[in-house]
Amino acid sequence: MKVLLLILVTYFAVSFSATGQSGPKNYTDLAEAMQNPESVEVLMLNEQGLTVFPDQIFEFKNLKYLELVNNQISVLPENFGDLSNLFYLNLSGNKLTEIPASFTRLLSLRNLYVEYDAPDNLNRDFTLLSALPLLSVLEIKGTQINYLPATIGALKNLEYLELLNTRIEALPSEFSLLTNLQVLYINNSTRFNLQENIDVLSRLPNLSELHLEGDDFTNIPSEISKLQSIEYLFLTDNNLKYLPPELNQLKNLKYLDVSKNDIPFHLLHLYRSDMAPTVRIRFN
């Protein structure tokens, strides 16, 4: 969350300093926004039952922040790239199968959240995203996503990545090319094999925050000790009954969350005693 908050605070701080006001108006009604299209910078049309992308949005030439969360949109228009001032785009909770080729024109985009229904060609989509020079925050959701293409390694500027509700088992070796990645979520991905992926994760030099929550892990492999850059480790909502002693070898570790697991109470207190005072542990 640190990277995301920094980017959003920066945007609204710029808006404040540029206008001398409290920031742009947050429009949540399309009809109201259409009354003054030149003023629309922030548009949130969440949970409005949209089944198609509203063409009226292209009237908002100064649009920077767009949320269309939890609608039923399955196709984005081919001219989507005309929204070239977009800084933040949230398409979670829709039924997309691909992103249009014109995405490569979203040169200001930094934050992108996409949920796939049944992706047609992830390799193509990640190739398109690699053309966005400022993209640093990316969230990908989809229960029918069972792999990551090698082209993810081309997203060189990613600092924050969420892979949620997927069926991904293994990360491609090219994943280690994400050398600027600081925060990684692999949550509710019950096929993810941590032991097979630790070598790839260990080659991410700036990875400081790792979330492995709701992945149905029954154990954490001893090879976890290879993740020497990790400062914050979240193992919430798994099926762990114990922790490996190798966690003590993570010299930069500051915070460990093992809440919502099956670890006996007496072991939790033992771990807290062993790791204190350098590591703060959350149990529940």
User: How much beta, percentage-wise?
Assistant: 15-25%
Question: What is the CATH class designation?
Answer: Alpha Beta
Average pLDDT rating:
93
What class do helices, strands and sheet pairing give?
alpha/beta
The 3D shape can be described as elongated
Rg: 21 Å
Indicate how many domains the architecture comprises.
1
CATH H-level superfamily title: Ribonuclease Inhibitor
Keyphrases for this structure?
12-stranded parallel beta sheet, alpha/beta, 12 strands, 284 residues, 18% strand, single chain
Explain the overall architecture.
With 284 residues, the chain is of the alpha/beta class. The radius of gyration is 21 Å and the shape is elongated. It has one domain (2-207): Ribonuclease Inhibitor (Leucine-rich repeat, LRR (right-handed beta-alpha superhelix)). Strands 1-2-3-4-5-6-7-8-9-10-11-12 form a twelve-stranded parallel β-sheet, with helices on both faces. Mean pLDDT is 93; it is low at 13-20. It has five helices and twelve strands. Helix content is 18%, strand content 18%.
Task: Give me the secondary-structure topology.
Blueprint: H1 2-19, E1 26-27, H2 30-34, E2 42-44, E3 65-67, E4 88-96, E5 111-116, H3 122-129, E6 137-141, E7 160-164, E8 183-187, H4 194-201, E9 209-211, E10 232-234, E11 255-257, H5 265-275, E12 280-282
Parallel strand pairs: 1-2, 2-3, 3-4, 4-5, 5-6, 6-7, 7-8, 8-9, 9-10, 10-11, 11-12
